[in-house]
């Protein structure tokens, strides 16, 4: 980040970056704890996660207010403006990540995931591990303005999609084998979809980081998994 003659401008931009880092840490923790509540069938932990989402919402509003004030006061251009726009975009993605974590916690209150087979348990755990790794890596990338790290997150999104598709089919099998599983499997399907969407938001943040640093989107093409996922969900 370049230095300005008016040091208070640097302080304001640094404060926005610091708030994003804090918000990202809260969102990451909320998701991890929500998945743990699901897999351990821990209603108390699930309730804590639902309550924790309010703090993330408050931070998004704080970042938005500060960003608007900086724009009004400094009338930034070029890189400075990208810093502020990036903070707004990333805070929005992180708020959605926290919402998805809260949704998982709510589903955890309705089901006992431990009643399912080991393959389903491992599948959900593996999917959440991948998504949280992506989230951590992209937050590190933002902190260091590392475009190559962001590119790594962007390129690996298909791995999460593939695991989600496999888990989706596994849960469908459980439902077809015994209609009594339909209710719980439906909850788990929504949980899996929420985790997959967290990976998508990490990818969005990666794209924003590339825009922030270079002023351009990623220039490589990546094979989309949308068609594969749609076909699996309609199977």
Counted beta strands = 0
| N→C terminal distance | 49 Å
| CATH topology group | Methane Monooxygenase Hydroxylase, Chain G, domain 1
Q: Any idea how many domains?
A: 1
CATH architecture: Up-down Bundle
Q: Strand percentage, roughly? A: under 5%
Q: Percent of residues in helical segments?
A: over 70%
Structural class: mainly alpha
Order of helices and strands: HHHHHHHH
The count of helical stretches stands at 8
State the fourth-level CATH superfamily: Phosphate transport system protein phou homolog 2, domain 2
**Average residue pLDDT:** 88
Question: What oligomeric state is this?
Answer: single chain
* Approximate shape: elongated
Poorly predicted runs are: 224-229
Radius of gyration: 19 Å
Keywords:
Methane Monooxygenase Hydroxylase, Chain G, domain 1; 83% helix; mainly alpha; 235 residues
TL;DR?
This protein is an all-alpha fold and 235 residues long.
Description:
This protein has 235 residues and is mainly α. The chain has helices spanning 7-40, 43-74, 78-108, 118-144, 147-155, 157-177, 182-214, 226-234. It is elongated. The chain contains eight helices and no strands. It has one domain (7-234): Methane Monooxygenase Hydroxylase, Chain G, domain 1, CATH 1.20.58.220. It is 83% helix and 0% strand.
